[in-house]
Amino acid sequence: METPRKWEEMTWQEKREERFKRWLNPPDVKFVSPEAEKLYKERVTRFMKAIKLEEPDRVPVMLPTGNSPAYYAGANFRNIMYDYEKARDIWIKYMDDFGDMDTFSGPMLIPSGKISEALNARIHKLPGLGLPDDSPMNQFVEGEYMMADEYDLFMRDPTDYALRVTMPRTIGLFESFRKLPPLNYFMMGEAWVAALADPDIRKTFQTLMDLAGEYRQWRAAQEEVRNIVLARGYPSLFSGGIMTGAPFDHFGDVLRGTRGIFLDMFRQPQKLHEAMEYQLNMLRASIKGFPMTACPLCIMPLHKGDDTFMSDKQFEEFYWPTLRGVFLAMIDEGLVPMPFAEGKYTNRLKQITDAPRSGVVWWFDQTDMAEAKRILGNVCCIAGNVPTSLMMTGTTGQVKENCRRLIETCAPGGGYILAGGAHIDTGKIENLRAMMDAAREYGVYK
Amino acid sequence: MDNVKNWKELTPEQKREERYKKWLAAPGVKFKNKEAEKLYKERVTRFIKAIKMEESDRVPCMLPVGYFPAYYAGYDLKTVMYDYEKQRDAWMKFMDDFGDMDTFMGPGLVLPAPALEMIDHYMHQWPGHGVADNVAAYQFVEREYIKADEYDKLIQDPTDFWLRTFMPRQAGAFAPLARLPHLTAFVGIPLFYLASFADPGIQQAYRTMFKAGEEVMKWMDTISVVGREAIERGYAAFGGGFSGAPFDMLTDMCRGTTGIIMDMYRQPEKIHEAMERLIPIAIEEAVSLADAALAPLIIMPLHKGNKTFMSPKQFETFYWPSFKKLLLGMIDEGLVPLPFAEGDYIPRLEVIQDMPRASMVWYFEYMDMAKAKATVGRNNCIAGNLPVSTVIMGTPQDVKEGCRKLIKACAPGGGYILSASASVDTGKIENLRAMMDAAKEYGVYK
Asked: What is the pLDDT of residue B190?
């Protein structure tokens, strides 16, 4: 990690300043023109000031572009899964057509089709792989991938548990890993060498190795988009941080499922707490010493903590303490957690104020933004929340009007990023333009 | 022991009885003839009675055969490490020529050198590879494989530690595995597993592991006939698996002597935490090894707990409590631990004697056996300790006389296995015969 001297002795704000400097002056980007570099710096500065609860030149915007460039070009999610070069060309063309934006990124969470076929994941459905060919989204398949009595097994050795239990349950290709012997044994190294002779296990490894070329191509196309986007002066918000979530969601979404986790909250709350603490400690270990990267923002999609899934009391007891722990670990390392609160967080606002001032950016989906400003305005930067429905079906006039109201409510004093409540896919480019126009027209600080 | 009903409800004693039954019945073994089966049962009974602190027909004997069959056949350790057929033939010839023994093990400890070369194994030197061609033993290469600040990796996620920290330093071919991602982080997004497989270094590591795996299988296929043949001819199966003391696992394999001694002063609590972590894993490993074997004996070579390495206080603080916990854990599962105390254990006798009656075997190297009989030997079976120097250099008469004295001191009342202080390599077959003769001549219970 390229850290200045005495990194450990710096305050979190000083560490963050170092990361901000790196964000503002990316050493690996060759800007296409001085103009592009100037724009890049202006845009990053806009976000940094908003994060620090200061007033920038104007309200920064995260357009909910999502995967709409695919549809703009007449392609769809599934096409992009299979043709990486085409995807790259589509995204670059879209960027050129659109013009001024504060940030832009390549295709979001669109995996390689060939690799997805081979992985045969049970936890994901994709267009053409479990979903209709023309589906514009992937679908997570919730299930009880971890049984109620397996918390101890998880805590005893999380990687062993992932390798030999969860991976075979969630991903078809790793079915054979059920037969792997534990890797943590001190005395029987030869046992797993022998396991490599098992034809099914060999087949899994062989398939993985055969896919490596495909992965490299997919990855290269992604890298290319990323580099071009940056070189043209558009900062990326999503490519530098740690992508993680709330410890509660780690168990609630991925492992135990909604039904399982809610039973656990009543039947074995202590186990759940222990496991979440365990997960938090592991996250702490991976956050500590996190390298200097392109951008210090850590996007954290949140799910089961919203107003509809649990009571205030449950949030207080089960959701918030370990989520706050993740925030603090990130903040302490100079990173900026950016929770994306999916659903509605209006009830939660009063419960999430306990964090270092300006340490977090809360991005809201369906939360009451006036309340958010009132309660969190002096605590942290907030982002949101033009409804996706409006973005997809409204007129440009309606979009601009909605943005104007949001800016009036949230922008005063700084600490606001204009954003969508979620991302669009098959929407209209004019509405994205209207949103950008609104920021320039109504969002200027004087 | 899945085949035993209500296994979980049995007491440790009942579990041990079940394991003894399996040892005696030798399921799946096709004895050469009735006589072989009869001899097998007699010999196993001899050992079981000794462990149970009962008098059998005579004192059982573990001959210190070691690598001797290689030299007896006119080869040396180097030759049989590289030539599996010669390895097999040498051990078969010794078995044919020797005749009556209570137990005889195949050459399982003669490792396949070609596989070790393929993976560029650092942890051992062997004849022709780090030590001279004519050396009759391996040399373990102690080193600080794990750094002082890496205990938490082991404590938090043992398999991850094993895979990404320990293995890459254990063998040159595994070095790229250090670049593997942390598997637990990606349970929900399977695509990221692929990233590591696109890394050419990691691909090469897997290919090498497969190749080495094939070599290990070739070796196992060749030599496994010896072990099977020995049992079919009526020699008692003996080793049910290997294990060790938690302190030694950390010292020998991870921190090295210098490292661990520093840690004993600088961060004693980390040693304790790590050992606590290893205990359940070691128990599980021992159970799975013994379940796959006939005999319930877990052979545990001990190193750093002897008189020369640490003070009595250090032994009682760092070595014994975790080791005892591991022993008791194994005993609870009906296993019979057989620690082999290398070096001087005389000052340890008082501390280690407090174990459940007839639950284990203490095998001593440097020991006052009369004192051992009066302490540890009152509760549990002891084994030892005719000096290897006598077995290699002495006359058959010297050997017989040494054995006679040992039997006189240790055999009364049962609970003794005649054995040498270590194994021989370049000795004489007459001296091994003399030892066997002594057991039959002086060791008969009346």
From this structure: 59
ipTM for the predicted complex comes to: 0.84
Residue B180 Cα, gap to closest chain A Cα (Å):
12
How many CB pairs below 8 A link A and B? 139
Q: How many domains does chain B have?
A: 1
Q: B59 to chain A nearest CA, in Å?
A: 30
In a domain? residue B117: yes
Q: How confident is the model at residue B214 (pLDDT cuts 50, 70, 90)?
A: confident
Asked if B285 and A190 come within 8 Å (Cβ–Cβ), the reply is no
Q: What is the 3-state secondary structure (H, E, C) of chain B?
A: CCCCCCHHHCCHHHHHHHHHHHHHHCCCCCCCCHHHHHHHHHHHHHHHHHHCCCCCCECCEECCCCCHHHHHCCCCHHHHHHCHHHHHHHHHHHHHHHCCCCECCCCCCCCCHHHHHHCCECCEEEECEEECCCCCCCEECCCCCCCHHHHHHHHHCHHHHHHHHHHHHHEHHHHHHHHCCCHHHHCCCHHHHHHHHCCHHHHHHHHHHHHHHHHHHHHHHHHHHHHHHHHHCCCECCEEEECCCHHHHHHHHHHHHHHHHHHHHHCHHHHHHHHHHHHHHHHHHHHHHHHCCCCCEEEEEECCCCCCCCCHHHHHHHHHHHHHHHHHHHHHCCCEEEEEEEEECHHHHHHHCCCCCCCCEEEEEECCHHHHHHCHHHHCEEEEEECHHHHHHCCHHHHHHHHHHHHHHHCCCCCEEEEECCCCCCCCHHHHHHHHHHHHHHCECC
Whether B80 is covered by a domain: the verdict is yes
Interface test with A, best of B159, B217, B300 (most A CBs within 10 A): B159
Looking at residues B102-118, what average pLDDT do you find? 88
Which CATH code fits A7-65+234-442?
3.20.20.210
Flag whether B408 is in a domain. Answer: no
Global confidence as pTM: 0.88
What percent of chain A clears pLDDT 70, i.e. is strictly above it? 97
pLDDT by residue (tens digit) across A189-216?
556 666 777 889 889 988 988 888 898 8
**With bands split at pLDDT 50, 70 and 90, how would you rate the model's confidence at B189?**
low
